Amino acid sequence: MSEQTTPAHWLLGRITWDSIPMAHEPIVLWTFIAVVLGGMVMLAVLTRFRLWGPLWHDWICSIDHKKIGIMYMILGLVMFLRGFADAVMMRLQQSMAFGESMGYLPPHHYDQIFTAHGVIMIFFVAMPFVTGLMNYLVPLQIGARDVSFPFLNNFSFWMTTGGAVLVMISLFLGEFSTSGWLALSNLGAQDPGVGLDYYIWGLQVAGVGTTLSGINLIVTIIKMRAPGMNLMKMPVFTWTALCTNALIVASFPVLTGALVLMTLDRYLGTNFFTNDLGGNPMLYVNLIWIWGHPEVYILVLPAFGVFSEVVATFSRKRLFGYTSMVYATVCITVLSYLVWLHHFFTMGSGATVNTFFGITTMIISIPTGAKIFNWLFTMYKGRIRFTVPMLWTVGFMCTFAIGGMTGVLLAVPPADFVLHNSLFLIAHFHNVIIGGVVFAVFAGINYWFPKAFGYKLDEFWGKCSFWFWLVGFWVAFTPLYILGLMGVTRRVSHFEDPSLQIWFVIAACGAALIAIGIACFFIQLFVSYLRREQLRDVTGDPWGGRTLEWATSSPPPQYNFAFTPVVHEIDAWWDMKKHGYRRPLSGFQPIHMPANTGAGVVIGALSTVFGFAMIWHMWPLAIASFVATVLASIIHTFNYQRDYYIPAAEVAATEDARTQQLAAAHV
Asked: What does the pLDDT look like over 177-218, one tens digit per residue?
């Protein structure tokens, strides 16, 4: 805490030599060396192959929803490696720290790691994965050429990345928060160091991106559907995207408000969340969970959409109970706002309030259960192909059902009083998030990869990844259920009772199996790239898909569709194939498209610098970066070169090449 005792420097703020943790933390030092070496290799590759120009023009400045979707997925994968490294460190510490042995992590460092693990996995892994899938697929599924506000899409991505950058900087400069992933501990008397400020500003910057992305996708779905596609003819994934983005727009401002009030408490000495001068910490607990519970549905609804698409395709049947699936999704969306108090039954709200929220929590499990039955009935009597996406789906159904049941158990207030602060809750949460969201992401990547890159992923390594993940998950988290029922508390870095150690060792073995599963996934990507010619898909429809994204080439052209498709049925592409659809071969018109711009990355970078300056109390830099952000935004409004036309000849050439490709495939 030396940075608090010494007065802040006029320019450097709170930064001192003591702010650099690698001077006294060997783990951080070696991580830093690895990051620097990796960064140097990457810079060398970009320079050697002259990729700086294409990287800047075609990716960083791109406002093509497909490229932005892919960049979200890459951000999620990079942050996933960091979040998983934190998880492995916690598993090792807990399997070692018993009795005399204190393990290898000091308590303060352990608290930073478990906070960073939660924050990164939710905000910078699960959210980018889900947003990436929605960005890539929604315009294709509804027959649109891009999203409603293409620049906003690029800007949203760079704001999310800016938040991730701030969280990553905390590893090497200063420290991260020790207050848990929702900053709930020591409310009103929190650590005055920079950790919690990194948390606040990282989430605020990323939250702007998420909120704007939500607005963008809602408008896209409402206003840009193909002719004939009314709401009840939309693919289920698009429905789940619509509901998810409605939740984002309704709940993320609550998170922003809560963090603004916490910022005022820390920077201006107000008393919103203290016990002094009329403040109340329970205000923060309520605000953060009114955002936090819809957040878990923001993550899991698109996952349900992915599984709906996969099940229908690989059972070669229309999804059973489409209407009930849509109503279940909307029910979950509404009910997700009526259950937040179940996260703190133990905080003294009283029996009546607890009863109400316990009942609503049980009610919300009903539409979720209805979805499981719909997927099962879709599979019933279907000609199922157990491809990798289908394996992830079956694994999800088994895993998620158990996670859901433990959730209903925790919805009973008396049971929750026993289990709330135990490892049982940790096991339940990971059961639904890994079993739901992570499995869906892997199913989605395997399912839509040929659409995005033009070749399938290798089946063998995909199956290896699936089995290591599935077995590893249960080996890692079953011991936590057992320990939770024995009353072992969560958020603890050292235990006295040596009889518990075996369970933590088993859990660490499970984490090792998951690590092998992750390695298999990266091997799958590498092997598939090497074998891309054998795995090539020229049809654009490698699985016999049912929705409109499979009507285009793989990867789709910049404009997605030369002619906007006309929809007559729920499974639009399946219906078109059934009626002998023929691609138009002439009559192409110039296509109006949005132009790339660098404004998004510039404003995002300036916002990130502003956040960094506020964290370290570097007031001159904060003022300068804030003014620069406002100026850059104003200058962007004067950019009138925002669109261009793809000439009809270019469209015709692209479509002719596709015709020849299809003809060669049928020979």
From this structure: 999 899 987 776 777 889 899 999 999 999 999 999 999 999
Separation CA 657–CA 131 (nearest Å): 32
With a pLDDT cut of 70, the percent of the chain lying above it is 99
End-to-end CA distance of the chain: give it in Å, rounded. 72
Q: Is 223 exposed, middle or buried (0-12, 13-18, 19+ CB in 10 A)?
A: exposed
**Residues 272, 261: contact at Cβ < 8 Å?**
yes
Please tell me the distance from the alpha carbon of residue 465 to that of residue 360, in angstroms, as a whole number. 37
Exposure string for 461-480, b = 16+ CB within 10 A, e = fewer: bbbbbbbbbbbbbbbbbbbb
Neighbours of 267 (CB within 10 A): 12
Which segments of 527-616 are extended strands (E)? 591-594
Which residues lie closer than 8 Å to 466 by C-beta, 6 or more apart? 388, 391, 392, 395, 442, 517
The Cα–Cα gap between 394 and 80 comes to 23
Q: Where are the alpha helices (DSSP H) in 380-500?
A: 388-410, 413-419, 423-432, 439-453, 459-485
Q: What is the pLDDT, as a whole number, of residue 2?
A: 36
How far, in Å, are 144, 401, 592 from residue 595 at the CA level?
16, 46, 10
Backbone angles phi, psi at 592, to 5 degrees: -80, 125
Structure tokens at 157: 């991505």
Q: Are 128 and 75 in contact (CB under 8 A)?
A: yes
Angle, helices 195-223 vs 236-267, to 10°: value is 150
Q: Is the pLDDT of residue 632 over 60?
A: yes
CA atoms within 13 A on the CB side of 182: 16
CA distances 83 to 79, 114, 209, Å, are 6, 9, 21
Question: Could you tell me how far CA 57 lies from the centroid of its own chain?
Answer: 26
The predicted pLDDT at position 4 comes to 47
Structure tokens given for 471? 């077995």
Q: How far apart, in whole angstroms, are the C-alpha atoms of residue 398 and residue 376?
A: 11
User: pLDDT, tens digit, for every residue of 395-420?
Assistant: 999 999 999 999 999 999 999 999 99
Rounded Cα distance, 393 and 389, in Å: 6
Q: SS3 for 592?
A: strand
Q: Would you give the DSSP letter of residue 112? A: H
What is the radius of gyration, based on Cα positions, of the chain?
Answer: 25
Q: CA dist 121 to 81, 102, 212, 313, Å?
A: 10, 27, 21, 30
State how far the alpha carbon of 223 is from the alpha carbons of 45, 228, 231, in Å.
Answer: 42, 13, 11
Banded model confidence at residue 457, pLDDT cuts 50, 70, 90: very high
The 10s digit of each residue's pLDDT in 290-337 is 999 999 999 999 999 999 999 999 999 999 999 999 999 999 999 999
Angle at 40 between CA 34 and CA 45, to 5 degrees: 125
Position 667 scores a pLDDT of: 66
d(CA 422, CA 134): 35
Q: What is the amino acid identity at position 331? A: C
* Average pLDDT estimate for 581-594: 90
Q: Which residues of 320-374 form beta strands (DSSP E)?
A: none
DSSP secondary structure string for all residues of 367-389:
HHHHHHHHHHHHHTT------HH
Count Cα atoms within 13 angstroms, Cβ side, for 332. 30
Q: Tokens 């959409």 — which residue?
A: 305
Look up residue 456 and give its DSSP letter. Answer: P
Q: What is this structure's pTM?
A: 0.95
Angle between helices 65-96 and 107-119 (to 10 degrees): 150
